[in-house]
Amino acid sequence: MHICLLFQKKKGFHAFISGKNVFLPNIINNNNIIVRIMKELVEKVAELYAAFEKDAKAQIENGNKAAGTRARKASLAIEKAMKEFRKVSLDAAK
Asked: Whole-angstrom Cα distance, residue 16 to residue 25?
């Protein structure tokens, strides 16, 4: 699952989120844009966690090995999304 967002105003490019990367040029001074990006990342983490939880339960309760593989893959995606959130959050704190 990849989230691809482009936030822009009349005079140009402000932020781009693509799967693994968040591009925040120095132009951004608007907290509303950063807050919107953080909300999207929180939604992404929630979706990834829901998929992880479903697959982890299937492995635990039913012994489904394929679900275990999907759960491990989802856990890595959650880790990456959390790192993205951390980057954006640090930019917001500046």
From this structure: 9
